[in-house]
Amino acid sequence: MSANIYYSHEEVYALINKAGAKHQPCFFILDYDGQEGVFVADPMAQDLSKLGLAFKVGAYSSDDSWLSASNVPPRIEQVYPETEARYAERFNIIHSGLLHGDSFSN
User: Residue 8 forms beta bridges with which residues?
Assistant: First the structure.
């Protein structure tokens, strides 16, 4: 990967706000804990496969023909899934906040 796309949540929020103020498209991901994330400015203008990313949202998508287990760059060598109870706990926090009207942004 040639570009850094991984940031702290504070950096991601700042980058999102900067792009929004300029009315520029962006692609971002935040983890459930809000500790770190991914940010890509103007995702439709670049080859996301070089960044190890692909997406499809409605009619918009990156070219995901490159996806295969051998092409995905390793960021995590081994994944340890959360327990169902821990996942449910985190899901309930987010779900109740959304029902309350929270947007989970700074």
Answer: 36
Contact 54, 80 (CB under 8 A): no
Tens-binned pLDDT, residue by residue, of the chain (106 aa): 346 888 998 999 999 999 999 999 888 988 877 788 899 998 878 887 788 787 776 666 776 554 444 555 555 555 667 888 998 998 898 888 888 887 766 5
| pTM metric for this prediction | 0.54
Q: What is the DSSP string of 65-97?
A: TT--TTTSPPS-SS--PPPHHHHHHHHHHHHHH
Contact partners, residue 15, CB within 8 Å, separation at least 6 = 7, 26, 28, 39, 41
